[in-house]
Amino acid sequence: MIAAIDTRGSMRFMITKGTVNGEKVCEFLKKLMHDNEGPVFVIWDGHPTHKSKKVRDCIDSFDGRLEVYFLPSYSPSLNPAEQVFNNVKSHGTGRMAISGPDKFKSIIFGRLRKLQKLPRIIRSFFRHPDCAYILS
Question: Which InterPro entries would you find in this protein's record (predicted)?
């Protein structure tokens, strides 16, 4: 799962099968940038995929409309998108008995769609004490 949120309370996401690799990250970035004139700012952790040549080339293809900022190592709490994942876990999958991968994907998709319709909740992720730096 890949997700992007903004301070206005909107969210984009993509559910992937298997490992998130450079190809999938680029697919997500292209969808993210499709109807955005820019500039778009992305805050990422230091996952090797985010720093791969494929992803760097993809970022460069947007001619400066996409700017990427990397978080310090081992600091997921500084990434507001982590709040999306925490929300899905606590309100979507928590202690559920899930009967298989298709059911799991359906539950995740449903929770993310519901969250998309709750901009107030998404905006609150930026008020998390560790993420307040974004609004200042």
Answer: RNaseH_sf (IPR036397), Tc1-like_DDE_dom (IPR038717)
Q: Where do the domains of the chain lie?
A: 2-134
pTM, 2 dp: 0.87
When pLDDT is averaged across residues 66-78 and rounded to a whole number, the result is 91
d(CA 20, CA 23): 8
> Which superfamily, per CATH, for 2-134?
Ribonuclease H-like superfamily/Ribonuclease H (3.30.420.10)
d(CA 9, CA 69): 20
Between CA 112 and CA 129 the distance in angstroms is 23
Contact criterion met (CB below 8 Å) for 67 and 39: yes
